[in-house]
Design a protein that fits this description.
This protein has ten helices and 22 strands. With 445 residues, the protein is of the alpha/beta class. 41% of the residues are buried.
């Protein structure tokens, strides 16, 4: 039995669901973050339970040829990235294994193949949005931060390598400006800086307990540094009145510049505001959505469950006979209707409501010959919704998932109800992190 503070040499045999290495000592599992399969490492045991231990690498005895130099100075402290220590091709193999393990072990699909991961064209600098926590250090200076893994302990950063350069520039300008003109009391009331950068335009939201001071000066500094004008930058204030983990929940006030970013995505005109949901990696977003649209046959009726702000529904409408988007959040349905109107789409109906309640009513109208698109949140599809689906039995199901574990759980229930998996394609939406998206095609048996 391993004990805390013990040092031991281990061989990394496999990878875990959080991309950490897994070793075994006399059959006892040891999780080793930042280790690569095949490596021999010396670890310091930092945690033990009755089922497993966690070890921290203190020496590389036999490093993998896939190990690379890490560019980020806070890697291993910041909880954002988990795979900067290995080559990108190795990272894609790790993520494929994460999906396979979930599908096999949680779903019980032991013979099911999983495609190679579709990689991102950009391994670094791909994030078009960042939400930086703000903290005041012991010297009274404001710091732009990330959080330490599995905690709210701040890690001071100057440059997030997976975030777009212009966003990092904005964060640096903001920090310097605040430290120059704000009092200590005013600094302590700043909570987050949220920046979105698309098509050369930026939306900047200051989350704080009080309205920012001298924001017009800040606006001018940002324009000058980025080489843009007032038609390319928007500044907002989100009043933070509750002490919770929700970042943009209070009233949002437009301060200066543009109110949204108008962009085009796969032929659809889209308005992106501070509150809009828009994937942070546009390259992979396009690859996934293309796959979904290809999975829809010409002239089909399609129901897009968890349709959100309606972008995927709008894309599908170009190919389908008709599309019905179901979304429980009223504001998202409102945005979906605006998108529909903006793009002159006449074969799309957006329904605000719970899928489990709205789908049976919709089937009475359209029949059962339709394709169902599922793009749920990280927790997956509600069991009530799966029961509803199995009571309706649509012809095909196209499932987009951001969580291999909930995906595998849902596939197990769906396939028990009369479906078979045609293909599983993972996509690397979040390079350098442990997160992975998947697209699954299912057909009725």
């Amino acid at each position: 039995m391993l004990v805390k503070n013990q040092e031991i040499d281990v061989v990394i045999e496999s990878v875990g669901s959080d991309a950490q290495g897994i070793a075994r000592v006399d059959g006892f599992v040891v999780f080793v973050p930042f280790a690569i399969k095949g490596e021999t490492v010396k670890v310091h045991i930092i945690k033990t339970t009755k089922n497993y231990a966690v070890g921290k690498i203190i020496a590389l005895i036999k490093p993998s040829k896939e190990r690379v130099n890490v560019p980020c100075p806070v890697y291993g402290k910041c909880g954002g990235c988990a795979l900067q220590h290995c080559s990108y091709q190795e990272a894609l193999k790790v993520k494929k294994q994460i999906v396979k393990d979930a599908i096999h072990k949680i779903g019980g699909f032991y013979d099911q193949e999983v495609n190679d991961v579709v990689g991102s064209n950009y391994c670094y600098g791909y994030r078009n949005k960042a939400s930086f926590p703000l903290f005041v250090n012991n010297d009274g200076d404001l710091e732009v931060c990330m959080f330490r893994g599995l905690s709210h302990d701040p890690i001071y950063i100057n440059d997030c390598h997976i975030t777009m350069t212009h966003i990092n520039i904005i964060a640096e300008i903001f920090k310097n400006f605040v430290n120059k003109v704000y009092s200590l009391e005013q600094k302590n009331k700043l909570k987050h800086l949220v920046v979105r950068y698309i098509d050369g335009k930026a939306l900047v939201t200051i989350v704080s307990q009080e309205k920012p001071i001298k924001f017009d000066n800040l606006f001018d500094l940002m324009m000058k540094a980025l080489g843009i004008n007032e038609n390319m930058l928007g500044l907002f204030w989100c009043k933070k009145s509750k002490d919770n983990n929700v970042i943009l929940e209070g009233e949002i006030t437009h301060l200066l510049g543009i109110r949204n970013i108008l962009t085009e995505f796969m032929g659809i005109s889209v308005e992106v505001s501070p509150l809009s949901f828009f994937q942070i990696n546009i390259d992979i977003m396009q690859k996934i959505y293309k796959e979904v649209v290809q999975g829809v046959k010409e002239g089909q009726v399609v129901v897009d469950a968890y349709s959100g702000a309606g972008l995927l529904s709008a894309l599908i409408s170009k190919k389908a006979k008709s599309v019905y988007g179901i979304e429980i959040v009223p504001e998202a349905t409102k945005n979906a209707n605006s998108l529909k109107k903006q793009n002159n789409i006449d074969n799309l109906v957006n329904i605000n409501g719970d899928v489990s309640q709205e789908l049976p009513k919709l089937v009475e109208k359209i029949g059962k010959d339709f394709t169902l698109v599922l793009d749920p949140p990280r927790k997956g599809v509600d069991e009530r919704v799966i029961n509803t689906i199995l009571g309706v039995l649509p012809k095909n199901i196209l499932y987009v998932s951001c969580n291999p574990a909930s995906l595998a759980r849902d596939l197990k229930m769906i396939c028990k109800g009369g479906y078979k998996i045609e293909e599983i394609i993972p996509f690397d939406m979040f390079p350098q992190t442990a997160h992975i998206e998947s697209f699954v095609k299912l057909s009725k048996m």
